[in-house]
Amino acid sequence: MGLLSRFSYTVRSWLNSLLNRASNPAAELDYSYEQLRDELQDVQRGIADLTTQKKRLQKHRDRLQANVEKHNEQAREAIRQDREDLARRALEKKQATLAQLEGLDEQISDLEATQQQLVSKKDTLQGQIEQFRTRKETMKARYEAAEASARVSEALTGAGDEMGDVARTIERASERTDEMEARAAALVELEESGALENVLAEGDSIDRELDRISSEREVDTELETIRAEMGKSSGEASSAPSAEVDQASVDAELAELTADVEGAGAEAADAAEPAADEEPESETEE
Question: What does the alpha-carbon distance between residue 71 and residue 91 come to, in Å, rounded to a whole number?
Answer without folding.
Answer: 6
